[in-house]
Amino acid sequence: MKRIFLAGLCLAHAGTSMAQLPNADKLQKAFSYDDKDTVAWLHSGVTKLGINQGYLHNWAAGGELVSLAIDGLFSARLTRLYHRQVWSNSLDASYSLFYAYSNHFVPRKVDDRIDLTSKYGVRVHDKRKLYLMGLFNFKSQFTPGYDYGLPDWPSQPTSSFLSPGYFTLAAGMEYRGGNNFTVFLSPVALRLILADKKYTSRMPAGAFGIDYGKTSRLELGAYFTARYETKLSNNLSWKTQLDLYSNYLAKDKKDSLGNVVVHDNPGNIDVFWDNLISYKLSKFFSLNFALTATYDNDIPYSKQYLDPTSGTMMEKDEPDAGLGWWQIKEVMSFGFSYNF
C-alpha cells in the first residue's frame, strides 16, 4: 500500500509541475502547428485514480466478504516546437491492485504498464506535414507479475521490471496532423529485448523471444506506430495507439536436439493496440474503459504449465483459452480524474 501512495504523490507532483505550461488546445488557437516561425511548448495529460471497496456480513446472496480495488493511470504528452523542428515525448503508465478477504488481502495485480516514447524530427518542407524522424521507445512494467491460476504462483513470477524490457530505436518518416494525430514508419528499427535468466531458463524455447538461458535478444526490422486522440463529444474522449513490428531476422527456433519449438519468420508481425475511452461525469470524476490487445509470435499460448513439484505438465484452469496467442487486457474503472 505504501508504494501506491508514494506513486500517487509523484504523479500529483508531476501534474502540478506540468500545469505551468500552456495547454495544447489553447496554444494551437494562437499558433499554426505548421508555421515555420512557431516556437512553443505544447502539453496535455490526465491523471486518474479509482478506488472500489466492498463489505458483506451475513449476505444471503454470498460474495467476497471484504474487497478493495485500487487503480491509477498517468498519461502525458510534452512537445517542443522550434521552427521546423519538433521534439515529442509521451508517457503512459498504469497500475492496479485487488485485495480480498478470501486470500488474506494478498494483493493481486490487475494492470501494470510503462510505455515511454521520445521522438525528434525536422519537417522536410514548409507546406507539408512530413518529418524526418528519429524515435526511441521503452516498454516494461513496475512490479513482478504472476499467473494466479497456478497453485504455487507466489514462487513462480512470470515477469518483472525489465523482464521483459523492450527498447526500440528507429529512424524514418512521420506524418503529423497536429499534436493529436501522428503516423510514423521506419524501414530500419533496432529492438532490444531484455529478461532475467530465471525466466528464460524455465522452458526449452526460452521466454519473450529470448533463447533458453540467455538474457537478451537483438532484432532488426520495420516499425510502424500511429497515435490518435479525439473528443467524441463534450464529455467523451478516445485515445488509441497501434504499434506493428516485423523482425527481418526472425527464424524457427530449435532445441538442443534440433527439434523446432517455435515457428517464426518476418511475416509474423508483432501487434500492440491500446485504447482508452473516458467519459467525464464532472470536473474531477470520470468513467474509464481501457482495452489492450497484443500479439507476439515469440510469446506462444499453452493450455498447460509445468508443475515444479511433480515435474509433469498440468492443464490450466482458464475460461478464455479460445483466444489463443492473443494477449487481452480490459479494465473499467470509476474515480478521480484531473486533466492538465
What does this structure look like?
The chain has 340 residues and is mainly β. The protein has one domain. Helix content is 8%, strand content 52%. The chain is built from 3 helices and 16 strands. It has helices spanning 2-18, 24-30, 197-200, and strands spanning 39-55, 66-82, 85-100, 108-123, 130-140, 165-176, 181-194, 216-231, 236-247, 253-254, 260-262, 270-280, 285-295, 304-306, 313-315, 327-339. The strands form 3 sheets. A 12-stranded antiparallel barrel has the order 1-2-3-4-5-6-7-8-9-12-13-16. It has a two-stranded antiparallel sheet with strand order 10-11. The protein has a two-stranded antiparallel sheet with strand order 14-15. Strand 6 (165-176) and strand 7 (181-194) form a beta hairpin. The longest helix has 17 residues, at 2-18.
Short summary:
The chain is mainly beta and 340 residues long. The chain has helices at 2-18, 24-30, 197-200, and strands at residues 39-55, 66-82, 85-100, 108-123, 130-140, 165-176, 181-194, 216-231, 236-247, 253-254, 260-262, 270-280, 285-295, 304-306, 313-315, 327-339. A hairpin with a 4-residue loop joins strand 12 (270-280) and strand 13.
How many structurally independent domains?
Answer: 1
What gross morphology would you assign?
flat
Average pLDDT across residues?
A: 84
Compute the CA-based radius of gyration.
22 Å
Structural class, by secondary structure, is mainly beta
Give the fraction of residues assigned to helices: under 10%
Strand content: over 45%
Can you write the helix and strand succession as a string?
HHEEEEEEEHEEEEEEEEE
Number of strands: 16
Compute the separation of the termini in Å: 26 Å
Largest sheet: 12 strands, antiparallel, barrel
Uncertain stretches of 5 or more adjacent residues: 1-21, 26-31
Q: Please report the number of helical segments.
A: 3
Could you give the order of strands across the largest sheet?
Answer: 1-2-3-4-5-6-7-8-9-12-13-16
